[in-house]
Amino acid sequence: MSHRARITSPEDDCYNCIAWAANDTDHWWWPLPGAYWPPDVPVDNTVDAFVAAFATLGYEPCVDGELEAGMEKVALYVDIAGLPTHMARQLPSGVWTSKLGDLHDIEHPAVEEVCGRHYGRVERYLRRPVPNAN
Questions:
Q1: 57 falls within a domain
Q2: For 50-67, what is the mean pLDDT?
């Protein structure tokens, strides 16, 4: 964890980073038997499958992780082989939030703060209109 990251929750093994990015603290999201995965989405550990999973929540690919009025963004990280490893969600302030496996939720000023050996690099950004924005 980056020295600029701030822990924002106690440890919790009920949900993971993918669920946290999806605003779901009741499930562990991963394309594996026994974990939650949206119906009718390929059960594959691929970028396309994760993009399809988040499309069920109204997300679509976008160019970058810059703060955009009226939009909520997530970032998908991949390892050196191009396989998904992690997701982060952008908060209305522009700060990013992540769940570290079954550990803490954190806030990190930049999406790159969690890049590196464990989570790899950001491969894709997705966005959707902020839910219930009037």
A1: yes
A2: 97
